[in-house]
């Protein structure tokens, strides 16, 4: 039997980029993959939309960037036939390396149609996994929370394993908690110890120290979401491709931010691409909160360049590269061309 995608990627070191609606789009996935992410996960995609909507292979949420390979497509839904067909389409249209079932989204949009609601009906979740498995010949996985409003993840994970899930990701909060409180990594470890399949842990990993600590908690891999926004270097450090002490300076941050802008405008077009970047740009400069206001209101590529130049000048950053990143000007030329 050939080794599945997850088993193959788990033989490499590093961290996993979390699915994040509004963030883990093609540009962010590309930056994470270039820095050595073990794999990346798409934003959640409605299986109904793929099967019954007008969507096709050109759907931005699903379509891969040129050359993308290690990308899992996440689907949400609650109907076995729809998820089976959705999985087939995610595979043929988007070239998914594996298909993940969303069992963690608490937002109203998903209520009654899957997401974290499935934690209340684990038997339905198992039927969904079985239907998806029968439909595609790639790994099928699920991403769960600890439970709806109390810890139920061990029972849910064991059921999903029996249904044929190749891997389970656990976000260490209940659905009722949404994003409040701290992720419970003891509970994640409990789930990891209760099943044979690999368990990936998710929640509140923002620094390399925390990442290393969580890697020792019995999970097969650690997933990073919010902590990776504006910080793709975390993946390189986690994978051992960059020294842990090699903290990016402002110049490198500006070059990476510009590259993100370039990928975004290429993917979405200039106007939408820049609007999408407003929430991301300040995250590249967390230690310059005084620039936040300017960074969230940029309208044109010229604005981006001038603001970053002023930011660099104000921080007295010399134009040096201690990494192979092209120069700031070269990056800007790429954005412009
Ligand atoms: C803005 C945002 C969007 C998210 N979208 C998804 C999603 O589409 N699918 C999913 O399974 N989890 C989603 N999550 C949850 C994350 O994948 C992750 O489990 C959670 O944020 C905890 O990890 P973190 O502290 O590293 O961000 C989202 C989280 C955020 C903050």
From TrEMBL:
This is tRNA-dihydrouridine synthase. Catalyzes the synthesis of 5,6-dihydrouridine (D), a modified base found in the D-loop of most tRNAs, via the reduction of the C5-C6 double bond in target uridines. SUPFAM superfamilies: FMN-linked oxidoreductases. It comes from the Bacteria. The active site is at 105 (proton donor). CDD domains: DUS_like_FMN. Its EC number is 1.3.1.-. It comes from Deinococcus ruber. InterPro entries: Aldolase_TIM (IPR013785), DUS-like_FMN-bd (IPR035587), DUS_fam (IPR001269), tRNA-dHydroUridine_Synthase_C (IPR024036). The lineage of its organism: Bacteria, Thermotogati, Deinococcota, Deinococci, Deinococcales. It holds the Pfam family Dus. Its cofactor is FMN. Residues 314-337 are annotated as: Disordered. Gene3D superfamilies: Aldolase class I, Putative flavin oxidoreducatase, domain 2. Belongs to the dus family. Residues 17-309 form the DUS-like FMN-binding domain. Coiled coil: none annotated. Keywords: Flavoprotein, FMN, NADP, Nucleotide-binding, Oxidoreductase, RNA-binding, tRNA processing, tRNA-binding.
